[in-house]
Inverse folding.
């Protein structure tokens, strides 16, 4: 399976009320699990930098990955940037 990093930045609309944000996050997660079963979540991290969330996912279906990004954008009130990720030793071996 290919590994991808999804970098997300929340819009101000996502943070009007903390309790509402928790529900929003839960709803987006549930929608992704239902509509994108070929994407396996490896990890999620909240950050204090340029991006608010870093997700590490795996899939062999790029169309499912595109759908995940669109769900995060549309329902999660976020912008995203998605990057393919190659394990370091594999990258070095290809040089």
């Amino acid at each position: 399976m290919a590994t991808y990093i999804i970098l997300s930045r929340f819009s101000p609309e996502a943070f009007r009320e903390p309790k509402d944000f928790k529900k929003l996050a839960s709803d987006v997660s549930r929608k992704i699990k239902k509509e994108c079963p070929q994407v396996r979540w490896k990890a999620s991290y909240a950050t204090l930098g340029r991006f608010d969330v870093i997700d590490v996912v795996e899939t062999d279906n790029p169309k499912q990955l595109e759908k995940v990004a669109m769900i995060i954008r549309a329902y999660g009130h976020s912008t995203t940037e998605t990057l393919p990720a190659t394990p370091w030793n594999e990258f070095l071996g290809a040089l």
Observations:
- The CA atoms of residues 10 and 78 lie 4 Å apart.
